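thread from #wetlab-drylab

HS: before we spend reagent money on co-crystallization trials with alpha-D-glucopyranose, can we at least see a predicted complex? here's what I'd submit
DV: go for it
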Amino acid sequence: MSSSGKDKYPWWKKAVFYEIYPRSFQDTNGNGVGDLKGITQRLDHLNGSKDSLGIDAIWICPFFPSPMKDFGYDITDYKAVDKLFGSLKDLKELLTEAHKRNIKVVIDLVLNHTSDQHSWFKESKSSKKSPKRDWYIWHKGRNGKKPNNWIASIDLRSAWFYDEKTKEFYLSTFSKHQPEVNWRNNELKEAMWDVVRFWLDLGVDGFRLDVVNFYYKDKEFKDNPLSFEPNPRLFQKHKYDRNQPGTHKVCKELRKMVDKYEDKVLIGEVFDARAGQCASFLGKSDDELHMVFNFHFLIRPWKAAGFHDSIAKWYRKLGDTGWATITLSNHDQPRHIGRYKKGKLTELRAKVAAMMMLTLRGTPFLYYGEEIGMMNGTIKKSQLKDPVGIRTWPLKLFGRDPERTPMQWDGTKNAGFSKGTPWLPVNPDHKTRNVKDQLSEKDSILNFYRELLRIRREHDALSVGRIEFLKKGEDDVLLYKRSIGKEVVHIALNFHHRPRIVAKKVKGKVLFSTHRKKGEKVDFSKEELKGLEATMLI
Ligand code: GLC
């Protein structure tokens, strides 16, 4: 803290974020779908009480009016709350209660596309002469065919959809129901900025920007070149439908607007596997977004060297001014505990992953339920709700439903999530894996996360300190030093289930460990790390 009482670091650099998928967190009216009141009711789990996890910010996935073709990522009204989730009043209450507990609230802004049921799109579609025609991307086609080879990644077919009435194609790069807006149109842009101001004025602390790198498209609509990388689903390089220079202009404008308010944060979902591309959305002189996701960790197998490669590259591309985000799970990918599952070793691996995520330099984003080691649900084909359908990579699971099953609060029917019939089946293991039981089990994953978060809050070295790697995955071990001023913390993580030699001159007392007692003296020039040991020394 400075003498003025204000921390010299922006709050989001020290914060730990927690993503909430509102449909699945807590249902309060018995309709089987989570709601905003439910989030408010469960805030104590997150912060402000003695049993809290201790998180600093929540990101809530979309709760706006929507036909729910992509569960809220298809919006019909940007300035309201869908009845399913409650009302604007509920949201205000949620903001007040969250802020009382020092929890910041970040909401999801889906500005790349609307629902096909949005009044803007209906107007745009009504006639070629409609004043809103140009708010979306229309094309007459080429020689009677679709304009180009771009693909809708949810529907897995062409991204161009023919409108019989006006005899033109509209662009929709997710599903048919999510037409892309035209960011080159100033009126559209102003309408979106109006949405941004509406929520900032209401008191939200920032935004997660859905697929921010998709906003602008190539003006000439050139064909994308074919490729077998990086996403095996789509087989094309997204050279012309993503990452266009115009998007950076939009981000700069947005940043200027947000900077007029105090302490707000912009976090971009850059849908791209390249760290450099992700980092580019922070701007050359910190004039675009504050943070962006890099999903490289989400595709890494369980190997220390691989994680090191990803993080080292991420830091390199971020340079001195950029700030990293660290995340292993979200609502679009199978939960990491499932990706790294290995019989009896599963929980230990989850703890190693947790210590890594909460001690690397950058802002961690946890996904609801990971604090209790919630598994990917088993969803039968007949129960499938997600429009993505059968996904075969990286795990053979049905759609994204497995990572969206209801939060497991206790061992009662429906895990304390709902008194009605949950929209997705509750995982049967909730009887033994739930918040209530894990709070009273000393060595539970929940208590492991709680302790990690507590220590992180007490030691600035772990959030804003420097990082230096002493072992970069050799022998399947990561060893790194975090430091700030006189404070130094070493973190040693063994990704292997057998003991591993560290052989580095690192000594200290245990601050926290999977295998050792607090205060125990350790000398890693002499001692081994036990199998899947995660230890912090001070
Ligand atoms: C983002 C969201 C995903 C959604 C897609 C389209 O990737 O995270 O859930 O389906 O955008 O909005």
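DV: The chain has a mean pLDDT of 95.
HS: ok that's useful, forwarding to the group
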